[in-house]
Amino acid sequence: MLGRLAAQRFREIRQAFCQIPQASRSFSTALNYHLDSPDNNPDLPWEFTDANKEKVKEIISHYPSNYKQSAVIPLLDLAQQQHGGWLPVSAMNAVAKIIEVAPIRVYEVATFYSMFNRTKVGKYHLLVCGTTPCMIRGSREIEDALLEHLGVKRNEVTKDGLFSVGEMECMGSCVNAPMITVADYSDGSEGYTYNYYEDVTPKRVVEIVEALRRGEKPPVMQRDQHVESVIKVKICYLILMNFIFQRGTQNPKRINSGPEGGNTTLLSEPKPPPCRDLDAC
């Protein structure tokens, strides 16, 4: 009796969610269930491109043959890059087949990590850091500026399909707060980039959006001649899984996380500590 009542209640809740327009369910990238739709159902064929099939072999080669399932995260990431920034259920099924696990094992990963999008995003997916340091430094104003300029709500896609805006927790550069990330899916998996823009302002994020709209690649780090002449600049390129990302400040008076205008302390080699005469102890 209780089982029948629970099943009936579940069907009612599922039906209620199915009747909600997709735009109103824009938060569904964070939900842990799937609802079939014309563009996202297990009957749609999906497979990696020939070029990405070679990448799949290379990724799997990093793991012992009896631990192929350990490749699930980089394979899902590659599938998301190929599919324009989001993961349909048929792509997850394809990954499950490759690593020889039950599809539910892949669904568990895709629904747990916020880096995987399960609804459509723009070709340029903008993520605003919403953790406390960035919030104190104005991340709410940054997000409001983006949403107002693009005319969308959080996780909605612009009508031209170019942009979407989301929120991410802690991008790991609190000293350069506030900051945003731009996931660039405009060139597929071959040209995919994931860049961090730090020390942004409402004006600067709008400039970044318009540069992307023109097909430009906004510089990750801003520099002025004075600072460049004082401090040697080094931009680090970090390899993460199978793509490159860059990060840097948008404040032209700073280098990485240094103070405006350059260092005022620690300008020379540190002095070594005085030696102790251990024999005298």
Automatic annotation (TrEMBL):
PROSITE patterns: COMPLEX1_24K. Signal peptide: none annotated. [2Fe-2S] cluster binds at C129, C134, C170, C174. Its cofactor is [2Fe-2S] cluster. Keywords: 2Fe-2S, Iron, Iron-sulfur, Metal-binding. It comes from the Eukaryota. GO terms for molecular function: 2 iron, 2 sulfur cluster binding; metal ion binding; NADH dehydrogenase activity. CDD domains: TRX_Fd_NuoE. PANTHER family: NADH DEHYDROGENASE [UBIQUINONE] FLAVOPROTEIN 2, MITOCHONDRIAL, NADH DEHYDROGENASE UBIQUINONE FLAVOPROTEIN 2, MITOCHONDRIAL. Belongs to the complex I 24 kDa subunit family. This is NADH dehydrogenase [ubiquinone] flavo 2, mitochondrial-like.
